[in-house]
Amino acid sequence: MNFRFKLSRRLARMKVGAVIAGALLLGCSLSSSPVIARVEGIQIRPGRVSLLPFQAAPLTVVVITSRGIDSSGAAAALQWSTTGGTIINNGILAGVRYITYTAPAQPGNYLFVVTTPTGTPADTASFTVTTTPVPVNKVAITPATVSLAVGDTTRLYATLTDSTGSAVFGRAITWSSSAPTVAMAFDIGFIRATAVGTTTITATSENHSGTAVVTVHQ
User: Fold this and answer.
1) Poorest-confidence range of 10-19, 61-70, 96-105, 183-192?
2) CA 117/CA 202 separation, integer angstroms
C-alpha cells in the first residue's frame, strides 16, 4: 500500500467524521430552538359587573396561548382602555394580571377593553353603574370541593351576582360550617381543618347562599 492510497483513505475518514459532527450539531441546534406560543385569546374576569358610583372592583386578565395560560411575559405587553372610570394596574402573578377598576361618578354603562399590541385578540368587560345597589340573586363558592389534611388551612371565595349575572361587590357575607368540629369557617372564607370527616361550608349574602364541600383526612 503506497503513501498516496493511505493518505486518501485518511482524508475520506476525516470527511465522514466532519459530516457526522455537523449533523449532530445541526440536530442539537434544531432541538433547542424555542417554541413560540401563539396568543389565542384574552379573558377578563368577571366579564360583567354592577357597581355604585366610585365603587371599586377587582379584575383578573389572563392571556391564553396555544400552550395554555401564558407565563412567559405576554401579559406584560397588554394594552387597555375604558370608556369611563379608572384603572389601577396591580401587577402580574403566575401569568395573571390583576386590575382594580373604579366606577365613575356618573351612572351608566361603561366598557373596559384589553388587547394585545397588534389589536387581536381582545376581550371586553362591561360595567353598569347605578345609584342604588342591585339585589344579590346568587352566591357561588369556589372551589366547590376541597380536600384538606388535619391542621391545614385554605381560603374559599364567594362570588355574588345579580339577576342579570353581573358580579356585585361590597356586600356582607356570612360564612358557616355544618360541622365545625371537622372544619371551621372564618371571615372572608378562611377554612381550618380540625378533624377527619366531611362538612359543608355555606356563604350567605342577602338571603341567598352558596355551598362547598370540605373533606378532611389524616
Assistant:
1) 10-19
2) 43
